[in-house]
Amino acid sequence: MTKSSLELSKGDWIVHSRHGLGQVTGTDTKALAGVSQDFYVVRTESITYWLPKGELDSERIRPVANNEAFSEALEILAQAPKRLDENFRRRLADIHDRVQACSLKTKAALIRDMYARDVEKDVHVNERKILDTLQDQFINEWVAACGIDPETAMDQLRKALNLSSANLKRKKSHF
Asked: pLDDT grade, residue 5 (50/70/90)?
């Protein structure tokens, strides 16, 4: 299915680059700045958002991935990580740019790279929150798309990440 042919109905599942997995719960019309606009109402685990019907071609929205896509993502997660910038501001800007990508492969690579940084160094609280959110979104989509058990999905994610960071120098414990 191409993005331009994406049609949504109540009950459909989609993935938003920021909000992760969500289910269309209906439609709504709202007047914004005096202009009436049609929206899909999308419910995620934590929020409800209104997606303009005209934005289905957006790079921020994609259909839920399939088993093959998750197999490819696991391969990416298990590969050697790429170093993130040492400068906090540049690193955070890069992370935010990569979060905007709605691609499962891009998110898998970002999870791997952020996890590796966390193995080697103490990460900023903002980075920790982003990493936790990305992992949760990955697991939630995998569970919904492939019917995998959440614990099994988490175990496979951990194994892939541990494999990718096996040769890294671990940070010293503060305690």
From this structure: low
**pLDDT, tens digit, 9 for 90 and up, residues 86-128:** 999 999 999 999 998 889 999 999 999 999 999 998 889 999 9
The CATH class of the 3-63 domain is: mainly beta
Q: Which residue ranges does the chain devote to CATH 1.20.58.1290?
A: 67-164
Residue span(s) of the chain under CATH 2.40.10.170 come to 3-63
Architecture label for domain 67-164: Up-down Bundle (1.20)
What's the pTM value of the predicted model, to 2 decimals?
A: 0.86
Residue 127, Cα to own-chain centre: how many angstroms? Answer: 14
